[in-house]
Please model this.
Amino acid sequence: MDQLKFGIAGFGKMGKIREITIANSKDAKLIAIFEINDYQYSDDSVIQCKSFDELLSTAIDAVIISSYVSSDSIASFSLILFMIKPI
Model:
């Protein structure tokens, strides 16, 4: 089975908890993150996006939303969506 490729929008407390969950799964892989605040992710293999639209444009199968984002962007992509915050 192929790994499900994840992106995370919002890399605060909940985003980091989701990162750990993904890391502990053999069926999932973190591909990209988007954090609006100044943040430098430590793993160079993970794409650090400058916008939510850029995150959605990466090669992800699913996105975890743990931050407030625009719902206009989401409508144009066919991804599995896990929402922690309202849109």
Summary: The chain has three helices and five strands.
